[in-house]
Write a structure and sequence with these properties.
- The chain is mostly helical.
- Helix content is 56%, strand content 4%.
- Strands 1-2 form a two-stranded antiparallel sheet.
């Protein structure tokens, strides 16, 4: 597939076409030129998939798409017919401008997550007896493991990053606080589950 750039639209128009995987790939290539395998390896090394859903196939799809839009350029070729695994890409000036434009979207600050566990809880009144307690304990074990993993990752990041006022440190700090808060909430639900009852209208004051 050709990576010859199409006519580059203005940053505002191109920014609307960018998906989250596109932006993650653009940001990594803004640090240094990489080929597709490098990008995928960085996603794993930095645990980026903890906060952005970017699969390996999406990496290569984004590279081709960004090249067509003129937002990345081929920095070097291993062979004339090399695929995206071998071509080394770098973010172009247009790519940086487009990414900056995309980062000004209002929806970054107004979206709400829809955790699968809360969906399960809303439907859990239809579960078989004792399932609620078992699922609650499974969730508690999972969150405890994720908390420990985030704490280990933060320690590793702090050894690499100085000063500690860095987006990776802030993000991991938020994850840790969220996990701690959920564990406290799960403990509270666990204590109160014996009092669980069907919903009814609240008594009139």
């Amino acid at each position: 597939m050709s990576t010859r750039p199409s006519r580059v639209a203005g940053p505002a128009r191109a920014a609307r076409a960018l998906t989250t995987p596109d932006m993650v790939v653009l940001s990594l290539l803004a640090e240094r030129p990489m080929h597709g395998y490098d990008v995928s390896a960085e996603l794993d090394r930095r645990l980026i998939r903890d906060w952005a859903s970017v699969s390996r196939p999406q990496v290569y799809y984004s590279l081709e798409k960004l090249a067509r839009l003129g937002l990345v350029r081929v920095a070097s070729d291993a062979a004339p017919a090399a695929g995206p695994e071998r071509r080394v890409f770098a973010t172009s000036a247009a790519g940086r401008a487009t990414l900056a434009e995309a980062l000004e979207r209002t929806e970054w600050t107004t979206g709400r997550d829809r955790p699968a566990f809360l969906t399960w809880m809303a439907l859990s009144w239809l579960a078989r007896p004792r399932v609620f307690e078992r699922q609650l304990e499974r969730r508690r074990e999972f969150v405890a493991k994720e908390l420990a993993r985030a704490q280990r990752t933060l320690e590793e990041v702090e050894r690499e990053v100085w000063p500690p006022f860095h987006e990776a440190v802030w993000m991991l700090g938020l994850f840790i606080e969220q996990f701690r808060t959920e564990l406290r909430w799960l403990d509270k639900v666990g204590r109160e589950v014996v009092r669980r009852a069907p919903a009814r209208h609240a008594p009139t004051p």
